[in-house]
Design a protein that fits this description.
- This protein is mainly beta and 275 residues long.
- It contains two helices and 19 strands.
- It has two domains: 7-126, Methylamine Dehydrogenase, Chain H (7 Propeller), CATH 2.130.10; 195-271, no CATH class.
- The strands form six sheets. It has a four-stranded antiparallel β-sheet with strand order 1-2-3-4, with no helix packed on it.
Length: 275
């Protein structure tokens, strides 16, 4: 908004601010190069104040309850707060000011002056009348009830999911564990003979299993048609059926093959993977 003042004052102006008074009258504050604050109402000088310094910026702030206007004069790193009354008077001075802004920072429905000062992490928020507090909006009862219901529903779902997860973990503890070899010492094994190792995927809670659901007995070996026949008795000691058992045959050289017990259309049988 352009200042509504005589042309002669514009030539000596350093900065200015414009506001509207009641009844549509135009209020103009102007800081001159000689260090004065001049107040105009409808192009007439109604008051003045010697600042004894040149101003860099000028703002007009209006506080409410009660309604009062203030001139905010920036000069270097100082902020002068001048109350608009008869006569104009400086009511407060802030030092080391880096930035000044007028906004509704606290969401109160009325403006506040926000002052940033050097070295401070949080700005000063004031209306130059009293202590300001952000009013917490009260939620609508229907909204509160709806959110409470949603929270209760989510809590029940979470509890159900945790219970299901615990049941799955318990089932895995019962079914998946690291099988250990149960091979006795024998003097009939030749050098380089195959050893039968049983294995399964490890599980963090396997130490909670007191008795494994599978038990291996002594392996036996026979020769049939020029080939080794290796027998591994596997006993199911649990109440559940065995669906996935893998045996690995490994020789001293380190090479090994895997044999898997699985259910097919032909029934349950041992088979080579990929066969």
């Amino acid at each position: 908004m352009e200042p509504d003042i005589p042309q002669a004052f514009i030539q000596v102006a350093k900065c200015f601010a414009v506001d509207i008074l009641g009844g549509g009258k135009i209020l103009t504050g102007l800081c001159t190069s000689s260090g004065q604050l001049l107040e105009f109402v409808d192009r007439k000088v109604v008051d003045s104040l010697d600042l004894d310094r040149e101003a860099d910026d000028l703002m007009i702030f209006t506080s409410y309850n009660p309604i009062q206007k203030y001139y905010l004069v920036r000069s270097n790193q100082q902020l002068l707060v001048i109350k608009r009354q008869k006569p104009l008077s400086i009511i407060k001075t802030y030092e080391n000011v880096t930035r000044v802004q007028i906004e509704d920072r606290l969401m109160l429905g009325r403006p506040q002056t926000v002052i940033w000062m050097q070295g401070d992490r949080e700005p000063i928020v004031t209306d130059f009348v009293g202590q300001l507090h952000a009013e917490v909006p009260q939620p609508v009862p229907q909204l509160t009830s709806g959110l409470s219901g949603k929270l209760h529903e989510m809590t029940l779902r979470l509890a159900k999911a945790r219970k299901l997860l615990q049941e799955k973990r318990s089932a895995r503890v019962r079914a998946l564990y690291q099988l250990t070899p149960h091979l006795g010492n024998t003097n009939t094994q030749p050098q380089g003979d195959e050893k039968v190792l049983a294995w399964g995927p490890p599980f963090p809670l396997q130490d909670q299993v007191k008795q494994p659901p599978l038990r291996l007995s002594q392996a036996w070996r026979r020769v049939h048609n020029g080939k080794w026949v290796i027998g591994v008795p596997v006993f199911n000691t649990s109440d559940t059926s065995v669906e996935d058992v893998r045996l690995r045959l490994q020789v001293d050289s380190g090479a090994g093959q895997e044999l898997r017990y699985e259910t097919t259309a032909a029934g349950r049988q041992w088979c080579w993977p990929g066969a």
